[in-house]
Structure formats: structure tokens, C-alpha cells
Amino acid sequence: MQLRCFVRGIDIKFSLEKEIYGKKSFNASFFSRIAIIRLTDFSDPAARISLRDFDLFIETNEENPERPFGKFENASWTGKIPIRLYAVSESGELLLNKLSILFAENSVPDEIEFEGVAVMRLDGQEIRIRLYTERKNDRTYLFLNKDDILAAAEHFEDFDVSDQEAQLISNHPARALHILKITRDARRLSKREKMRNENFPDDAFKHIYWSYHLTRTFGPEFAKEITDAHETLPNNTPEQRAMDFNNNRIGRALASELYTIEELRNIVQNNPDVIRYAD
């Protein structure tokens, strides 16, 4: 036997006292047009909660305005994990921990259904990418929509993303904005150096800076996956692709040490292992 309760128009403003995104507490707002509460198993009273068409907004951290998952729109969520009515606080904390693991590590063994539009900010622009879960092999996985990633990249100048690269980003939602930001910085700084010196090997600098910071942030294996996937773009010649693979490798090797932009620039100009021009 189950009892089902429908609640319409939940509007909550609250403060979270937890260190997230480098800030210990921040304000947030939540609005759900429909909430469904199912009471199950009266011998061990528990409830399952589903939310339909909800929005969640976490205030912008002025020190770090570009971060993943600050806002969700038109989202739905169903938790198959029951909330024990005699221990609501403990059950709620357990559920939040499961969600934290799902968003940080992309998978949990528990059955959780989520779908919504994640709104991220980059260069003052809002990027909207659909975020959703899939159940595979007794685990719940979190994905970004690959086509939305490709479409978002088109809004930025000289921001090519290959199909394989977009799929890899899709499989790691929490890393998406960081990857895009590092890519943006690599392109922006290489252009700046080229404007200062027209003979500067900007493409070599772009790939070394990019690979270096991807490795510093995510480790060498994931950095190699991203950079290798990017090189599947069809517009490079074999010589250009060979140069990029070489310089990406150098960037990964350099990541064991901390270098400034100026030091990386000097390495690009003077290290004999760097390939500066495809010809």
C-alpha cells in the first residue's frame, strides 16, 4: 500500500553553511512547481520524493563567478532512496551525500533520476547544457548532452571542439567548465603573445599551455585523453597534427613543476624539443 501526496508551488530561499566553490556559506533559492511525496512501507515508515519542473539557483561567488552547476532550470528529480520518517535529518544528509558523489564522480550505485538544464557562465555568457542520468549495469551515471556542448562551443570565437572531445566532456560533467576555461585561456594568451611579437610561435604556446594546465588540474591520463580527442578535428594537416601531439606531450611533462606564463613562454621559445612550426 502507498499513499501519494502532490504539493504545488514550493518556493524556498535558504542559506547553505558548507564550503563549496571556495566559499563557506552562500544564499540559494529553490522553486518547484510540483513535488510528489510517496509514503511507503508503513512497518518502516519512509517517503520517496519526486520533484517536477524545478529551478535551483546558488548565488554567484564574486571570487569565483565561473563554476559548474550554479543554476539549474526546468529540472526534474526522483530519488529512489527512501527518507526514513523517524530519522529525516540523517536520511536527508545521506541523500545529499549520494548526490554530491554523483556530481563529483559521475556515478553512484543508487537509483537516482535527474534531468535538467545546467546553466554555466563563461566570459559573461550563459551556457545552457542539458544534464541527465542514465542507469547502466546497476549504477546511475551523470552526463551532459554532447550536442549542447558542441553548440555552446560555437558561441566563442576560434573555439573548435571535436566530436570525440565533446563526448569525453559529456562523460565528466563536473569538469566541463574547467576544461572550457583552460581552453579559452590557452587561445586568449597565445593570441596576446602573437600580437606582441608577430614571430612568436603562438600555436606551440597554445598547446603547451593548454596541456600543461589540463594536466595540473586533472592529471596526465585525462589531459592526454582530452588533447588526443581534440586532434581528431579534420582541419589539421598530418604535419600540424604531429606538431600538436609533440607539444601536448611536452606540456604534460612540464606539469610536474610549477611554471608562470612567462616561464612557459620562454620554454616554448628556447626548448629544442618544442616544435614551433609545422613545416
Give an account of the 3D structure.
- With 279 residues, the protein is of the alpha+beta class.
- It has 2 domains: 1-144, no CATH class; 173-279, no CATH class.
- Helices cover 39% and strands 33% of the residues.
- The protein is built from 8 helices and 9 strands.
- The protein has helices at residues 88-105, 146-153, 163-170, 176-196, 202-218, 220-230, 238-254, 261-270; strands at 3-20, 23-40, 46-58, 71-79, 83-84, 107-108, 112-122, 125-136, 139-144.
- Strands 1, 2, 3, 4, 5, 6, 7, 8 and 9 form a 9-stranded antiparallel beta sheet that branches.
- Helix 2 (146-153) packs across helix 3 (163-170) and helix 5 packs antiparallel against helix 6 (220-230).
- The protein starts with a strand and ends in a 9-residue tail after the last helix.
- The model has no long low-confidence stretch (mean pLDDT 84).
